[in-house]
Specification:
Distance between the termini: 63 Å
Mean pLDDT: 95
Radius of gyration: 20 Å
Largest sheet: 4 strands, antiparallel
Helix content: 25-40%
Number of strands: 8
Oligomer: single chain
């Protein structure tokens, strides 16, 4: 009974807090293990339909593989000339942001000893097609605003939730300019 209680005490918000602490300490001792490279490959099918595959990454000073490849179909809805065979890429951005902010909040809250009983969120963004379609050079191609609403039940206050959500790597990527290098190879 004691072993089960001790094991349960190390888990908070579904996060193994003991392993989280060990990981933080390992990174402090050996900063190079904190360097990760995530990858995706994409193959165009037709029109707006394309398929991304994610199967490996670099982290903790070695190449790693996921248990199985993750395959994601992207397409456009018919109103945007697609066949609706998958979420469109800007919806994937919202899904990535939602997943990252949720995970970040759960991990950081667990690390601070804060319990979350329930959490849900909604994401909505505005895009003006005049930018994408080259109709107005003053209109950006991407999102002009993304609105995020979190509902959190637990022993965590609103200010701490906002603070921890801003630690999300995807939030940081979207909120701050990131350099993107494009290389084209003629087939």
């Amino acid at each position: 009974m004691t072993t089960m209680t001790e094991t349960m005490a190390m888990i908070r918000n579904g996060v193994n807090v003991t392993k989280l602490g060990e990981t933080i300490e390992a990174v402090k001792q050996q900063p190079e293990i904190a360097q990760f490279k995530f990858r995706a490959r994409n193959q165009w099918d037709t029109g707006g339909h394309n398929v991304a595959t994610i199967d490996s990454f670099y982290g903790a000073c070695e190449e790693m593989e996921h248990k199985q490849p993750f395959v994601m179909h992207a397409d456009e809805p018919p109103v945007l000339l697609g066949e609706d065979n998958g979420a469109n890429p800007v919806e994937f951005v919202l899904a990535g942001l939602s997943g990252c902010m949720t995970t970040t909040l759960a991990y950081h809250a667990a690390g601070r000893g804060l319990s979350i009983e329930d959490m849900s969120s909604e994401f909505e963004g505005d895009i003006d097609l005049r930018g994408l379609l080259d109709i107005d050079p003053n209109v950006r191609c991407g999102y002009k605003e993304i609105r995020v609403k979190f509902k959190v039940k637990g022993d965590i206050d609103e200010q701490t939730v906002k603070e921890l959500l801003r630690k999300s790597p995807v939030y940081d990527t979207l909120a701050n300019p990131v350099k993107i290098k494009i290389e084209v190879e003629k087939a």
